[in-house]
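Write out structure tokens for Transporter.
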Amino acid sequence: QKSERQSWKKSIDFLFSTSGYCIGLGNLWRFPYLCFENGGGAFLIPYLLFTCVFAIPMMILETSFGQSFRSGVIKSWERIPIFKGIAFAQLVANLYASSSYIIIMTWITKYLVSSVSSNLPWTSCENQWNTKHCVSLLTSHNSTNNVTLSELGISAAEEFWSHEVLGKSGGLEHVGSLRPDLVLYLSLIWIAGYFVTFKGIKWSSKVFYVTATLPVVLIIVVTIRGCTLDGAWEGLRFYLYPDLSKLMNFKVWITAAEQVTYSIAVGNGMLLFLASFNKRNQNFCRDALIIAAANAVTSFISGLAVFSSLGFLATKLNTTMAAVASSGPGLVFIAYPQSISLLPFPQVWSFLFFLILLLLGFDSQFVQVEYLVNFFIDGSKRIRSRRWNREILGALLCFFNFLIGLSMVSEGGIYVFEIFNRYGVAGWCIFLLSGCELVAISWFYGLDIHFKEIESMIGTTRGKFLLKMSWKFISPVICMVSIYTHSNDNHGKKSIDFLFSTSGYCIGLGNLWRFPYLCFENGGGAFLIPYLLFTCVFAIPMVILETSFGQSFRSGVIRSWKIIPIFKGIAFAQMVANLYASSSYIIIMTWITKYLVSSVSSNLPWTSCENQWNTKHCEFWSHEVLGKSRGLEHVGSLRPDLVLYLSLIWISGYFVTFKGIKWSSKVWITAAEQVTYSIAVGNGMLLFLASFNKRNQNFCSFISGLAVFSSLGFLATK
């Protein structure tokens, strides 16, 4: 019998669960440094402004939409069929987020366990992982005057982080072995996440009472202690002193918008999911205001805790705040542990600090696991109708994420983590998803319909005009500007970004001539693991998005995009891309035809050096096929044989397709299995083909690898 959807036992359960998810690690390690770097107290102006004009309206939009249907993420978006792909895009984003977020928690657990030792291991240079460049914090404090640790060498805290916690290798190409302690912590965290959530939200909501409130209490305790330290006020001055000139910098405003979006977690479907468990008459507007206020206050207090301690550290080292302040992992795992080590009873304060971080992380992890499990339950009647399927599904999803996490707890795992963190949970992804939500509900579903549902739920539509302005105009513009800013960002100049982007492009060049060699060069069969992983988390959702969009309208590329008039230009952009692709792709086919024709000769011409084109170096490819000149300035004459093959290929292409898709369907199916690129998402081809075909399966890359390497094995043997 079909089980009924669970709901929160009390209305306050939604508040605790949502606050626990929103108030996470970003509040403690991201907001304080952003505030310090972007004008101090002046940064609060754009931060609070974007909270009011963007974050709170987005929270109201998502929670009201989820609460009105009470049917999960997939079924909620089924109300707007052409935007159902948003649900799957959010699933992919949350898979990336949950996998990388847990890795931070494993590092935190490592520090938490190390905090119970008699001597904090990041204060000494006498450990097995230390190098000759290590400088103890206590030694530098007693023997230096106005110098930084970086001038003396590498701090003990930095070596503990780099050598003992990460075991950092030389780069992404050096994966190295797994870190046994991190693997243990990773497994324990996923096991805890499973047992907290396997009975559903009625059980996990009870845990949120502890994990959502205890960190706030501990943050207040740490803040009070920090503010009583020597030099604390110097640190707070750097944190809060308003530099109004920074507000003239456009980047500061974009950074504030990103932090608000990142912190309150709009756009990724979590608020919609959590609100779907609300009772019909839950006042989600009040809840949104409370959650936004709690998030802002916690961020502010976290800054007091962090920078009061960093001011103490700067005073003890007789250096500047700029020398000790850092962002992200550097703040939490290097700078702050250093300041703690100078306190009386450092083990106690270290344990409390990392316990705060771990509890903040657990809140977010529990919600992420609930989201993943319920996503598949809500989307499958078979899973929903059987009692034990939830427990089994939860275990499988946790185990799947655990396997993904293993790639980030190896010696080269930090580089994989950076890839996930940069591309999987990037700010532009959230703005893109938020923009899609706004367009879908405001312009396609209809705000008049939605406001009627809001009135039926809470009995009022106060602030209707302001919300309409935000949902239809202000928030979409913020999303568009943020996405545009990201597209022009220069952060992609790091070598790891270049490696990841170039590898992604090269893998898509072709099944037969690229995939086998890449497989050989990157670990043989082991290369299939990341290949299939990205197929699952990126390519397949994109295939589903494009094919469902094309199949739903069955009217061609241009007419499909006419459904969203402002994005009609996508069709023409895709046409230009495909004109370039088809022109260059056909040239490869002319070379192939040259080899094909040469293959019917009695002696293969590339096996002999007695042909007229041969030199003492004996080249068939460059001299006979290409007739290669010395450079672009020497165009030379046309190659008659290649011109002939080029014309024949275009003529055959015309006669195969001139009767339309019905006549050429068999040719398309055969070509799709052997010749086409593996997935080809993003260029509109899948959308076009889906308007004619019902199914598509591609296994060419793997088969091509078998064919090519069996032949190479024969060659090596000979």
